[in-house]
Design a protein that fits this description.
This protein is an alpha+beta fold and about 260 residues long. The chain is built from six helices and 13 strands. A five-stranded antiparallel β-sheet has the order 5-6-13-8-11. The protein has a four-stranded mixed β-sheet with strand order 1-2-3-4. Strands 7-12-9-10 form a four-stranded antiparallel β-sheet, with no helix packed on it. Helix 2 runs antiparallel to helix 3 and helix 3 crosses helix 4. The radius of gyration is 25 Å and the shape is flat.
Length: about 260
C-alpha cells in the first residue's frame, strides 16, 4: 500500500517509539497503520486496524516524553531556570536536547529543503542542532498582551531567528488581511532569516501558551553549510586516496606476475 508514492507501514500498538522512528527512517515512510490482535468471537484471531500514526506523531511524542522526564512540561521549565527580562516575557535557556530529542528534531528538519541532505549532511545537522538555542517561554500575562510583549515575530520588524516550536501553541497572522491560524508543535517560522542578514517577516506570531522553542540564526546555518562542503571535500579526497592505493596494488600485482623468475 502506498501514500503519495511512499509505503504505508503496519505496526502493532506495542511497538516502542525508537523502533517506530527507525522503521519510518529506514523505509522512507511517513504514515503507518496501527493494528491489534482481535481475539473476540469464535473464529481465529486476526489483526484489526485501530488507527493511523504519522512520523510527526512519533517525533512529537519522543520530544514530549523526554521533556516530561526532565521535569519540563508545557507549563515551562522549573522556576530556577526562569529569569524575567525587563518588560519582556520570562525566557530561559533550556537544558541541552537529549539524544532522543536530538535525533527526532534532526529527522524533522531533514524533511525541510533547507536542511535536507543536499544542503546539510546528517552528521553536521546533528552537531548543528546540538548547539541550538533552546528556550522556555512562560505563558503571556494580560499585561504582556496589553503592551504587545507576547510576540515571537512582529510583522515589519527585522529578526535574525528561525524557530521550531517543540511545545505549546502560537497564533500566526499573515497577509494584509491579517489571516489568523493556530499552530502547535513542529510549526516552523522564519526560514527567511537563514538566507538574509536583514530579513523582515511579513507575518506576526503571537504566543498563546507556555512554549518550548528551538532557535537558529543565519550565522549558525552558514557554518553548517560550510561544514558540509568541507566534509564532502574531505570524503572526496579520501576516495581519491583509496583509488590511488588500489591502482598501486594492481600495478604491483601486474609487475609481480610479469617479473621474470630467477633460475
Amino acid at each position: 500500500m502506498m501514500f503519495y508514492s511512499r509505503p504505508i507501514l503496519r505496526v502493532t500498538d506495542d511497538t516502542p517509539l525508537d523502533q517506530m522512528l527507525n522503521e519510518f527512517t529506514n523505509k522512507k515512510s511517513r504514515i503507518a497503520m496501527v493494528q491489534v490482535v482481535n481475539s473476540d468471537g469464535p473464529g481465529d484471531p486476526f489483526y484489526e486496524i485501530v488507527g493511523a500514526l504519522t512520523i510527526e506523531d512519533v517525533i512529537e511524542e519522543i520530544i514530549h516524553h523526554d521533556i516530561e522526564d526532565e521535569g519540563v512540561g508545557v507549563e515551562g521549565f522549573p522556576p530556577r531556570l526562569q529569569a524575567p527580562l525587563g518588560s519582556d516575557l520570562q525566557r530561559a535557556s533550556a537544558p541541552k536536547l537529549s539524544p532522543n530529542q536530538l535525533n527526532a528534531l534532526c529527522l524533522f528538519l531533514g524533511t525541510l529543503e533547507e536542511f535536507g541532505p543536499r544542503m546539510v549532511s546528517r552528521d553536521v545537522l546533528q552537531l548543528f542542532v546540538s548547539h541550538a538555542r533552546v528556550e522556555s517561554i512562560a505563558a503571556p500575562t494580560l499585561e504582556h498582551q496589553r503592551e504587545h510583549h507576547d510576540y515571537l515575530y512582529h510583522r515589519g520588524q527585522p529578526t535574525p531567528w528561525f524557530t521550531v516550536v517543540l511545545e505549546g501553541r502560537v497564533l500566526v497572522k499573515s497577509g494584509h488581511e491579517g489571516f489568523s491560524s493556530d499552530s502547535g508543535p513542529f510549526s516552523v517560522m522564519g526560514l527567511g532569516a537563514l538566507k538574509s542578514d536583514h530579513w523582515v517577516p511579513d507575518f506576526s506570531v503571537r504566543i498563546k501558551t507556555a512554549l518550548v522553542v528551538v532557535r537558529f540564526d543565519k550565522a549558525m546555518y552558514d557554518r553548517a553549510l560550510a561544514a558540509t562542503v568541507t566534509e564532502r571535500k574531505q570524503k572526496e579526497k579520501e576516495k581519491e586516496k583509496e583509488k590511488e592505493k588500489e591502482k598501486e596494488k594492481e600495478i604491483e600485482s601486474e609487475t609481480a606476475v610479469h617479473k621474470p623468475k630467477s633460475s
